[in-house]
Amino acid sequence: MKSISVYFLSLLLTTLSAEAQKISTPDLKSLTRKEDTLKILAKNLYVENGVAERMRSDSAFIKTFVRALQIKHSFYYPFDSLKGISKLYAPDSSFKIFTWSLSFDTYSRQRGAIQMKTLDGSLKLIPLKDFSEFSTTPLDSVRSKDTWIGAVYYNMIKTRFAGKSYYTLFGFDPHLTFSNKKWIEVLSFDNEGEPEFGRCVFSFEQDSIQKTVQHRYSLEYRKEATAFLNYTENEQMILFSHLVSESGDAYKPYTFIPDGEYEGFKWKEGKWVHVENVFNLFGKRVSMEELIRDNEGNINEKKLMEFSEKNIRRAEEKKKKSGKAGD
Q1: Rounded CA gap, 142 and 133, in Å?
Q2: Report field, pTM of the whole predicted structure over 0.90
Q3: 176/172 Cα distance (integer angstroms)
Q4: Mind listing the pLDDT tens digit for each residue in 10-42?
């Protein structure tokens, strides 16, 4: 598997910056004006108190956003000022995926769309419909654009197997009143270019207790808790928090919190193979909250990632020292 290196990311950004010059000056001005409007509508999605008001802002945002994307070569426009709207380029820059969340009284619904890169700069947009509230068994099937298990994606990596590309997505779902969810979702495209979400690749074949192979993986935990789930460059694997119930009830995910231990998935021969216990990643929890929250108190995934990688390196050094001491 080819991991996403700092060099590759720099190369991607340089390429996108060069390609962005394809946007004409008049079109760039139009995109900037539309972004100013979208910025206000995106903010209203999160600050409006009433559900009806948020729904109106969401509807207006979608209509304005689609008009903006119809401007030639909008694929290269970053929309950096749209807070709360996730914008992820594929590692090979073949597509871009937008996701955001619309909160109702007791649950949330995710919005999403995939913008494909086109040679002539015209718009090829694939809207995604969040079908999760109608899905009783979300882990056992491939989903289409119309039956998508919604999430706001914060990271994406690319893997290949048997000549086909797979894009592993990491997403957050505010879910219900008392619990959040994080998702690992594998995206690929069929021969007609249609997106396929999910693939039977999450294997537990090395576990002490065998489980059925899953099409995607989810982590549900208490609303006030902070659970880690992301790909780590140093280890070249997915790491995520091991959860336990505060009340000892395994059937109540809203009581689940991290216990300091970590599990993982390693890419092997076209599958994400589960690793039961990686190691104790965080030595001290007391400073973790400060490190992973921004000035407004929101979870900062970048800070969380940096913190985890720092602790991974410490654990590796500690392992090496222990090995030398035993010689």
Answers
A1: 16
A2: no
A3: 12
A4: 555 555 555 667 899 999 999 999 999 999 999
